[in-house]
Design a protein that fits this description.
Layout (H helix, E strand, L loop, with lengths): L2 H10 L3 E2 L2 E6 L2 E5 L10 E4 L3 H7 L4 E8 L8 E2 L2 E2 L6
Parallel strand pairs: 3-6
Antiparallel strand pairs: 1-2, 2-3, 2-5, 4-5, 4-7
Amino acid sequence: MTELEKQLDDAQRVYEVAGDQVVDVGGYAYRWCGSEPLKIGDRVLLPENYLSRLRNGPGPMLGVVRKLGTTYRGPLADIVRRAPATVD
C-alpha cells in the first residue's frame, strides 16, 4: 500500500456503525454487537450465505478478524458469535 493509499484509507475507515464495532473478516466487513470488542486474530462465526452453504454446508462459517474497521459503505451482516480459541 502506498503512502497516499494509506492516508485515504485512514481518512475513510470507520470503526463503528450505529454503536456496533465493524471488522474485516476474509476481506468482507461485518458488524459485531458483543459486549467485549473484537481484536485482530479473534475467531468468529459468520452467518451462512449462499456460497458458504454450497462450499461448507448449512450453518455458520468460521472466520478470523483480519482488520479493525472498514472503508465499505454498504449493508453489513452481523457476526453470529465468537468462536472458541484453538488450543495449540
